[in-house]
Amino acid sequence: MTIKESPYPLIFRPLIKQTLWGGSKLGQLLGKPIGDENNYAESWEIVDHGQDQSVVENGPLAGKTLSGLIQNDASWTLGKSTSDAMFPLLLKYLDCNRVLSVQVHPDDAYGQTMQVPDRGKTEAWYVVDVQPGSLIYAGLKRGVDREALAEAMAAGETDRVLHSFSPNPGDCVFIPAGTVHALGAGLVIAEIQQSSDTTFRLFDWNRIGADGNPRPLHVEQSLEVSDYESGPVQARQSDPAIDGWQRLVACDKFELSSLEKGSGEVGGDQRFHILTVPHGTATLHTPTETMELSRGQSVLLPAAMPECSISVDAESTVLRAE
């Protein structure tokens, strides 16, 4: 069977990343294949970035990498209008067992000037789970300019110039390139981002590493790419009473929508679509099969996929990125 004869939902085995700030909720809440340790930080659901590759688990394309599918037939995978040679987005789940470092990402233009050129990184977060007291840090406070940020960084007090708020499950936070940000302890997040590894660290909460030294900071790069105009970032919410898709984010890098009630159409438009289920369950109806999706499961509909429909039961949510 050729790739052109296989327009069905693609299921990939997640890539599980372990770090010191991870926990065990990826397995407990989302059913990810973790082991006995307690430091599972990220589950990369769909990725095509260097050595990090999603591998198909289902159907006649099982064992093929996402990169390999694109090289074989980019229009089948990505769509007729694409000029990309790699998949442009990355979907992941994060378990933040402790507060993450304060970071900022450059835009595409700056990314191309780096020693190892890469895309910039614009991203969006969907809050899956929250512990009492959890915070999100998103954007600088009003009036904070480059000089004020530099002074706070030099004093080890970067947190005092950051906007923060207590999120709720279902909140969506849009983080354009240049937005200073951090995820607090006790959060489980679904993240859609440009497929990129361009990250600058401003502040690591004055922590000391296992070697007795603080982790290095990217002071000049951070000051150069940070956005001093946009100010605080606020959470966005959908309306759970509305049937069908609701758009949460629309930018030049991706669109993110949610389905919390009823059903919605997807596919059949010569665009790829990513679906993931952060809450509950969902049922995907294709022209040839019905697929039950459980909590934490993600699928990719290649651009060649004919129109499908997806429905959710009570207390369930599907996210769609494209």
TrEMBL record:
Residues 15-116 form the Phosphomannose isomerase type I catalytic domain. GO terms for biological process: carbohydrate metabolic process. Zn(2+) binds at H105, E123, H181. GO terms for molecular function: mannose-6-phosphate isomerase activity; zinc ion binding. The active site is at R201. InterPro entries: Carb_Metab_Reg_Kinase/Isom (IPR051804), Man6P_isomerase_Firm_short (IPR014628), PMI_typeI_cat (IPR046457), RmlC-like_jellyroll (IPR014710), RmlC_Cupin_sf (IPR011051). Pfam families: PMI_typeI_cat. Its EC number is 5.3.1.8. SUPFAM superfamilies: RmlC-like cupins. Keywords: Isomerase, Metal-binding, Zinc. Its cofactor is Zn(2+). The gene is gmuF. It is an enzyme of class 5 (isomerase). It comes from Stieleria maiorica. Binds 1 zinc ion per subunit. This is Putative mannose-6-phosphate isomerase GmuF.
